[in-house]
Design brief:
Elements lengths: L4 E6 L10 H12 L6 E3 L10 E2 L2 E2 L1 H18 L3 E6 L5 H11 L5 E5 L20 H5 L5 H5 L10 E4 L6 H10 L2 E3 L6 H9 L5 E6 L22 H14 L1 E7 L11 H11 L2
Helix pairs in contact: 2-3
Length: about 280
Protein backbone atom coordinates (compact mmCIF):
# COMPACT_ATOMS: atom_id res chain seq x y z
CA UNK A 1 0.00 0.00 0.00
CA UNK A 2 1.30 3.42 -0.92
CA UNK A 3 1.93 5.60 2.11
CA UNK A 4 -0.26 8.69 2.21
CA UNK A 5 -0.35 10.47 5.56
CA UNK A 6 -2.97 13.08 6.48
CA UNK A 7 -2.80 15.69 9.22
CA UNK A 8 -6.42 16.69 9.87
CA UNK A 9 -7.66 19.72 11.78
CA UNK A 10 -11.31 19.16 12.68
CA UNK A 11 -12.41 21.54 15.47
CA UNK A 12 -15.98 20.26 15.75
CA UNK A 13 -17.33 21.53 19.05
CA UNK A 14 -21.11 21.14 18.90
CA UNK A 15 -21.00 17.61 20.26
CA UNK A 16 -19.86 18.96 23.63
CA UNK A 17 -22.91 21.17 24.16
CA UNK A 18 -23.63 24.85 23.89
CA UNK A 19 -20.18 26.06 24.91
CA UNK A 20 -17.41 26.75 22.38
CA UNK A 21 -14.56 25.75 24.70
CA UNK A 22 -13.43 22.93 22.42
CA UNK A 23 -13.37 25.28 19.45
CA UNK A 24 -11.14 27.80 21.24
CA UNK A 25 -8.98 24.96 22.56
CA UNK A 26 -8.48 23.57 19.05
CA UNK A 27 -7.64 27.03 17.76
CA UNK A 28 -5.05 27.41 20.52
CA UNK A 29 -3.38 24.15 19.51
CA UNK A 30 -3.42 25.22 15.87
CA UNK A 31 -1.94 28.64 16.59
CA UNK A 32 0.63 27.70 19.25
CA UNK A 33 1.70 24.13 18.56
CA UNK A 34 1.27 23.30 14.90
CA UNK A 35 4.39 24.20 12.94
CA UNK A 36 3.88 22.35 9.65
CA UNK A 37 1.66 23.65 6.88
CA UNK A 38 0.12 20.48 5.50
CA UNK A 39 -2.94 20.17 7.74
CA UNK A 40 -6.26 19.79 5.97
CA UNK A 41 -9.05 21.63 7.79
CA UNK A 42 -12.70 20.67 8.02
CA UNK A 43 -14.82 23.84 8.19
CA UNK A 44 -17.17 24.05 11.17
CA UNK A 45 -20.01 26.41 11.97
CA UNK A 46 -19.56 28.94 14.75
CA UNK A 47 -23.28 29.62 15.07
CA UNK A 48 -25.07 29.11 18.39
CA UNK A 49 -25.76 25.46 19.14
CA UNK A 50 -29.26 25.14 20.61
CA UNK A 51 -31.45 22.66 18.74
CA UNK A 52 -31.96 19.04 19.82
CA UNK A 53 -32.96 16.91 16.85
CA UNK A 54 -33.09 13.11 16.69
CA UNK A 55 -32.04 13.10 20.33
CA UNK A 56 -28.78 14.95 19.59
CA UNK A 57 -27.89 18.52 20.50
CA UNK A 58 -26.52 20.34 17.44
CA UNK A 59 -27.51 17.46 15.16
CA UNK A 60 -27.70 19.41 11.89
CA UNK A 61 -24.27 21.04 12.15
CA UNK A 62 -22.61 17.83 13.33
CA UNK A 63 -24.18 15.75 10.56
CA UNK A 64 -23.18 18.29 7.89
CA UNK A 65 -19.63 18.56 9.18
CA UNK A 66 -19.14 14.79 9.40
CA UNK A 67 -20.31 14.45 5.79
CA UNK A 68 -17.84 17.15 4.75
CA UNK A 69 -15.04 15.38 6.60
CA UNK A 70 -16.01 12.07 5.01
CA UNK A 71 -15.79 13.62 1.53
CA UNK A 72 -12.36 15.11 2.30
CA UNK A 73 -11.01 11.81 3.59
CA UNK A 74 -12.49 9.85 0.70
CA UNK A 75 -10.80 12.19 -1.78
CA UNK A 76 -7.41 11.95 -0.07
CA UNK A 77 -7.65 8.24 0.86
CA UNK A 78 -4.93 8.48 3.53
CA UNK A 79 -3.14 5.40 4.85
CA UNK A 80 -2.53 7.13 8.20
CA UNK A 81 -4.27 10.03 9.93
CA UNK A 82 -3.37 12.37 12.77
CA UNK A 83 -6.39 14.36 13.95
CA UNK A 84 -6.47 17.49 16.07
CA UNK A 85 -9.95 18.37 17.37
CA UNK A 86 -12.47 19.24 18.59
CA UNK A 87 -14.61 16.66 20.25
CA UNK A 88 -14.41 12.88 20.29
CA UNK A 89 -17.19 12.66 17.70
CA UNK A 90 -14.73 13.59 14.92
CA UNK A 91 -13.42 10.01 15.24
CA UNK A 92 -16.41 8.55 13.42
CA UNK A 93 -14.93 9.35 10.01
CA UNK A 94 -11.23 8.89 10.78
CA UNK A 95 -11.43 5.55 12.58
CA UNK A 96 -13.98 4.10 10.17
CA UNK A 97 -11.91 5.09 7.12
CA UNK A 98 -8.83 3.30 8.39
CA UNK A 99 -10.90 0.33 9.50
CA UNK A 100 -12.27 0.10 5.97
CA UNK A 101 -8.89 0.65 4.33
CA UNK A 102 -7.26 -2.16 6.31
CA UNK A 103 -10.23 -4.53 5.93
CA UNK A 104 -11.01 -4.45 9.65
CA UNK A 105 -7.43 -5.47 10.51
CA UNK A 106 -7.38 -2.67 13.08
CA UNK A 107 -7.32 -2.47 16.86
CA UNK A 108 -8.72 0.73 18.32
CA UNK A 109 -7.27 1.85 21.66
CA UNK A 110 -9.81 4.24 23.19
CA UNK A 111 -7.92 6.28 25.82
CA UNK A 112 -10.56 8.33 27.60
CA UNK A 113 -12.11 8.95 31.02
CA UNK A 114 -15.48 8.15 29.47
CA UNK A 115 -16.98 5.35 27.42
CA UNK A 116 -18.52 7.43 24.60
CA UNK A 117 -20.94 4.51 24.30
CA UNK A 118 -24.27 6.25 24.78
CA UNK A 119 -27.07 6.39 22.24
CA UNK A 120 -29.44 9.33 21.79
CA UNK A 121 -31.94 7.39 23.92
CA UNK A 122 -29.55 6.61 26.78
CA UNK A 123 -27.65 9.91 26.86
CA UNK A 124 -28.68 12.16 29.77
CA UNK A 125 -27.10 15.23 28.13
CA UNK A 126 -27.88 14.55 24.43
CA UNK A 127 -24.29 15.65 23.71
CA UNK A 128 -22.90 13.72 20.76
CA UNK A 129 -19.33 13.57 22.05
CA UNK A 130 -20.64 10.91 24.43
CA UNK A 131 -21.87 8.75 21.53
CA UNK A 132 -19.12 8.33 18.88
CA UNK A 133 -17.79 4.91 19.88
CA UNK A 134 -21.31 3.48 19.97
CA UNK A 135 -21.89 5.06 16.55
CA UNK A 136 -18.72 3.42 15.23
CA UNK A 137 -20.15 0.14 16.50
CA UNK A 138 -23.15 0.82 14.19
CA UNK A 139 -25.62 1.61 16.97
CA UNK A 140 -27.47 4.85 17.58
CA UNK A 141 -28.88 7.40 15.16
CA UNK A 142 -29.00 5.73 11.72
CA UNK A 143 -28.02 8.86 9.81
CA UNK A 144 -24.96 9.37 12.01
CA UNK A 145 -24.05 5.70 11.61
CA UNK A 146 -24.15 6.21 7.84
CA UNK A 147 -21.45 8.92 8.03
CA UNK A 148 -18.97 6.15 8.89
CA UNK A 149 -17.06 4.31 6.16
CA UNK A 150 -17.34 1.00 8.02
CA UNK A 151 -18.38 -0.40 11.37
CA UNK A 152 -16.26 -1.67 14.23
CA UNK A 153 -16.71 -4.85 16.21
CA UNK A 154 -16.46 -4.80 20.03
CA UNK A 155 -13.65 -7.36 19.68
CA UNK A 156 -11.50 -4.67 18.01
CA UNK A 157 -11.53 -2.44 21.10
CA UNK A 158 -9.23 -1.93 24.04
CA UNK A 159 -10.47 0.83 26.33
CA UNK A 160 -8.01 2.51 28.70
CA UNK A 161 -8.58 5.02 31.49
CA UNK A 162 -12.36 4.84 31.79
CA UNK A 163 -13.67 5.80 35.22
CA UNK A 164 -16.85 7.79 34.55
CA UNK A 165 -19.36 5.50 32.84
CA UNK A 166 -23.13 5.79 32.71
CA UNK A 167 -25.06 2.68 33.70
CA UNK A 168 -26.18 1.94 30.10
CA UNK A 169 -22.54 2.15 29.02
CA UNK A 170 -21.46 -0.25 31.74
CA UNK A 171 -24.20 -2.66 30.71
CA UNK A 172 -23.16 -2.44 27.05
CA UNK A 173 -19.50 -3.09 27.91
CA UNK A 174 -20.43 -6.20 29.90
CA UNK A 175 -22.85 -7.50 27.26
CA UNK A 176 -20.30 -6.92 24.47
CA UNK A 177 -17.31 -8.26 26.42
CA UNK A 178 -15.22 -5.15 25.69
CA UNK A 179 -11.75 -5.00 27.25
CA UNK A 180 -11.50 -2.09 29.71
CA UNK A 181 -8.42 -1.16 31.74
CA UNK A 182 -9.32 1.51 34.29
CA UNK A 183 -6.74 3.76 35.95
CA UNK A 184 -6.65 1.57 39.07
CA UNK A 185 -5.82 -1.50 36.98
CA UNK A 186 -3.51 0.21 34.53
CA UNK A 187 0.00 -0.85 33.73
CA UNK A 188 2.01 -0.62 30.52
CA UNK A 189 2.40 -4.39 30.49
CA UNK A 190 -1.31 -5.05 30.88
CA UNK A 191 -2.18 -2.57 28.11
CA UNK A 192 0.37 -4.04 25.69
CA UNK A 193 -0.80 -7.57 26.44
CA UNK A 194 -4.47 -6.68 25.84
CA UNK A 195 -3.64 -5.01 22.53
CA UNK A 196 -1.43 -7.86 21.33
CA UNK A 197 -4.19 -10.34 22.14
CA UNK A 198 -6.32 -8.76 19.41
CA UNK A 199 -3.91 -9.99 16.75
CA UNK A 200 -4.22 -6.95 14.47
CA UNK A 201 -1.39 -5.56 12.41
CA UNK A 202 -2.60 -1.96 12.68
CA UNK A 203 -3.40 0.32 15.60
CA UNK A 204 -5.52 3.43 16.03
CA UNK A 205 -5.00 5.46 19.24
CA UNK A 206 -7.81 7.75 20.38
CA UNK A 207 -6.78 10.29 23.03
CA UNK A 208 -9.32 12.32 24.95
CA UNK A 209 -7.22 14.45 27.27
CA UNK A 210 -9.70 14.04 30.11
CA UNK A 211 -8.11 10.62 30.64
CA UNK A 212 -5.37 12.51 32.49
CA UNK A 213 -5.43 13.24 36.20
CA UNK A 214 -7.23 16.54 36.70
CA UNK A 215 -4.60 17.78 39.16
CA UNK A 216 -1.97 17.51 36.43
CA UNK A 217 -4.08 18.48 33.43
CA UNK A 218 -7.25 20.52 34.12
CA UNK A 219 -7.75 21.86 30.58
CA UNK A 220 -10.70 19.64 29.66
CA UNK A 221 -14.48 20.02 29.48
CA UNK A 222 -15.57 16.94 31.41
CA UNK A 223 -12.97 16.36 34.13
CA UNK A 224 -12.92 13.24 36.25
CA UNK A 225 -10.62 12.65 39.24
CA UNK A 226 -7.96 9.97 39.63
CA UNK A 227 -6.92 9.63 36.02
CA UNK A 228 -3.68 8.54 34.38
CA UNK A 229 -0.57 10.58 35.08
CA UNK A 230 0.93 12.42 32.13
CA UNK A 231 4.12 10.36 32.43
CA UNK A 232 2.07 7.15 32.26
CA UNK A 233 0.36 8.23 29.05
CA UNK A 234 3.60 9.34 27.42
CA UNK A 235 5.32 6.09 28.38
CA UNK A 236 2.40 4.09 26.98
CA UNK A 237 2.54 6.00 23.69
CA UNK A 238 6.30 5.46 23.44
CA UNK A 239 5.85 1.71 23.96
CA UNK A 240 3.01 1.50 21.45
CA UNK A 241 5.14 3.30 18.89
CA UNK A 242 7.92 0.74 19.38
CA UNK A 243 5.74 -2.36 19.24
CA UNK A 244 2.90 -1.63 16.79
CA UNK A 245 2.13 -0.19 13.37
CA UNK A 246 0.22 2.94 14.32
CA UNK A 247 -1.99 4.20 11.50
CA UNK A 248 -4.07 6.70 13.44
CA UNK A 249 -3.75 9.03 16.40
CA UNK A 250 -5.94 11.81 17.75
CA UNK A 251 -5.61 14.71 20.18
CA UNK A 252 -9.06 15.75 21.38
CA UNK A 253 -11.17 17.59 23.96
CA UNK A 254 -8.66 20.32 24.89
CA UNK A 255 -9.86 23.62 26.29
CA UNK A 256 -7.75 26.74 26.24
CA UNK A 257 -5.09 27.10 28.93
CA UNK A 258 -3.37 30.27 27.65
CA UNK A 259 -0.04 28.65 28.46
CA UNK A 260 2.87 29.06 26.07
CA UNK A 261 3.60 25.35 25.90
CA UNK A 262 2.44 22.14 27.52
CA UNK A 263 4.90 19.30 26.94
CA UNK A 264 2.41 16.49 26.52
CA UNK A 265 0.61 18.37 23.75
CA UNK A 266 3.87 18.98 21.91
CA UNK A 267 4.89 15.33 22.30
CA UNK A 268 1.60 13.95 21.00
CA UNK A 269 1.61 16.35 18.04
CA UNK A 270 5.17 15.38 17.15
CA UNK A 271 4.20 11.70 17.28
CA UNK A 272 1.07 12.23 15.20
CA UNK A 273 2.74 14.28 12.50
CA UNK A 274 5.43 11.62 12.25
CA UNK A 275 3.14 8.68 11.54
Amino acid sequence: MQENHMNLFFPQWQGAGRTKELLTGAWEIRDQYIKVQDYISVPVSEEENTQIENGILGYRDIFKQLKQAKAIIAAENPSSIFTVGGGCDVEIVTVSHLNDLFNEDLTVVWIDAHGDLNTPESSPSKCFHGMPLRTLLADGNPQMVETAFSKLSPSQLVMIGQRDLDVPEQDYIEESNIDVIGPGDFSIERAISAIKSKGSNNLYIHIDLDVLDFDEFPYVMVPSPDGLKTDQLLELLAQLKQEFHIVGLSLLEYTSSEKKEIKILSDIIRMGEGL
